[in-house]
Amino acid sequence: MVSKNQIKLITSLQQKKYRIANKLFFAEGVKGIQELLESNFELEHLYSTAYDFEEISADRKSIVTENDLKKISALATPNSCVAVFKIPTEKPILETDLIVALDSIRDPGNLGTILRLCDWFGITQVLCSKETVDVYNPKVVQATMGSIARVNVNYVDLKEFLLKTKLPIFGTFMDGDNIYKSALPQHGLIVMGNEANGISAELENLVKNRLTIPRYGNLQKTESLNVATATAIVLSEFRRG
Amino acid sequence: MVSKNQIKLITSLQQKKYRIANKLFFAEGVKGIQELLESNFELEHLYSTAYDFEEISADRKSIVTENDLKKISALATPNSCVAVFKIPTEKPILETDLIVALDSIRDPGNLGTILRLCDWFGITQVLCSKETVDVYNPKVVQATMGSIARVNVNYVDLKEFLLKTKLPIFGTFMDGDNIYKSALPQHGLIVMGNEANGISAELENLVKNRLTIPRYGNLQKTESLNVATATAIVLSEFRRG
């Protein structure tokens, strides 16, 4: 059973202002929820149609009908469970060897996919410009497939950070060096730009290492790659050795 | 001005059965529409709020209000134009050197992104299993960003095709050979599997060249990559030389 107030609260968490006001976000699906539980995310409450999370005490979980689940889910086809978690306080930035910095990524699916990629390639620190979509947006949480629990995300003034970092700074441009022929170090900061405009003019001068993913052949008119697929290729190149 | 019947027709084209019945699909946005126009797609009618396609004769275009555009668009934030095109008859399969075969890709965004990637990497032939999402789904058309005009897509019985092709067949699995250390030819057929289940049991035996994209480090628990990002890495590896 889900009360009207609970439905109102959970659906409100689809909007950033209510996530901030309540310091809560929600995740859907057994796997993603389990990974958050295992990673010190503090559960507020779990709503499940069937799956019994034995590790959760009875006062923190409710069995609900599929109809109730539909009312609180953000998905067209809801999973079997929705869990509300507390938004943790931002952890300090990890001084890792390889950092991904996102310059105004707007699409939640792209951000989620990039976090999943970072997790795959062992990158534990992602920096987002303040204009980047909120990591606790339910579509981001969904697209990370649990990786949100393992990648540290901080929202920062990217220009300020790039000005002070000692890491070499990389980014992709149409006129950069062929990434396949560039020596790529195992430490560095990789800037990925906005879906429509790429890396912003404000940051471009700070990106000293300009890379390009070569387009194959000359006949194609494709002007760009999706930012998540471009990130996949760049991270693969940095890690392939 | 858009008539009620036109609104009814165009919105019906969001569903496959009405696309088939009417042999029509629609695209949104100036750039994507222009690329379809330049690529022999036959325009039925264009609805635009502002942008004047000079190359289109007056009887094939209408200036509409933003409110009208909202009624026919499939997007939450409509572009400035919607164009209805005839679905062309399927062209014969191109006997190219490198073919991508999709085994039950269900998500329209993934199919669109993969076609955009194929276009970037100069792959002009994509084969889809009959279970793969329809290429004329508006979300697919949107995600291709115009690449749908340059990549030949055929829906086939994939098993039958794999049984008769002379191309070496590649696919990614959790237990395959490290793709970074494999010699990859410039001809071959690359099978990419379903979002949840990977390559189907029915096809697996036919994929003689089993590849893996290595996960970096051992601590990560990420179980998989999104199929579009995996395709990005695989195509990059085949083309990087």
> Beta fraction of the residues of chain A?
15-25%
Count of all domains of chain A: 2
User: Any idea what the radius of gyration of chain A is?
Assistant: 20 Å
> What is the C-level CATH assignment of the largest domain in chain A?
Alpha Beta
Oligomer: homodimer
Number of strands of chain A: 10
Estimate the mean pLDDT confidence of chain A. 93
CATH superfamily of the largest domain in chain A: SPOUT methyltransferase, trefoil knot domain
Strand order of the largest sheet of chain A: 7-6-5-9-8-10
Question: What percent of the residues of chain A sit in helical stretches (DSSP H or I)?
Answer: 25-40%
CATH fold-type name of the largest domain in chain A: Alpha/beta knot
Shape of chain A: elongated
Question: Largest interface, with Cβ-Cβ < 8 Å?
Answer: A-B, 38 and 38 residues
CATH architectural grouping of the largest domain in chain A: 3-Layer(aba) Sandwich
SSE series of chain A:
HHEHEEHEEHEHEHEEHEH
Structural class of chain A: alpha/beta
What's the number of helices of chain A?
9
Account of the protein in words:
2 copies of one chain form a homodimer. With 241 residues, the first copy, chain A, is α/β, with parallel strands linked by helices. The first copy, chain A, has 9 helices and 10 strands. Chain A folds into 2 domains: 4-86, 60s Ribosomal Protein L30, Chain: A (2-Layer Sandwich), CATH 3.30.1330.30; 98-240, 3-Layer(aba) Sandwich (Alpha/beta knot). In chain A, the strands form 2 sheets. In chain A, strands 7-6-5-9-8-10 form a 6-stranded parallel sheet. The termini of chain A are far apart. Chain A binds chain B through residues 35, 109, 113, 116-117, 119-122, 143, 145-147, 150, 180, 213, 215-217, 219-226, 228-233, 236-237, 239-241, and chain B through 35, 109, 113, 116-117, 119-122, 143, 145-147, 150, 180, 213, 215-217, 219-226, 228-233, 236-237, 239-241. Chains A, B: InterPro entries: Alpha/beta_knot_MTases, MRM3-like_sub_bind, Ribosomal_eL30-like_sf, rRNA_Methyltransferase, SpoU_MeTrfase, tRNA_m1G_MTases_N. Chains A, B: Belongs to the class IV-like SAM-binding methyltransferase superfamily. RNA methyltransferase TrmH family. Chains A, B: Residues 98-235 form the tRNA/rRNA methyltransferase SpoU type domain. Chains A, B: Residues 5-83 form the MRM3-like substrate binding domain.
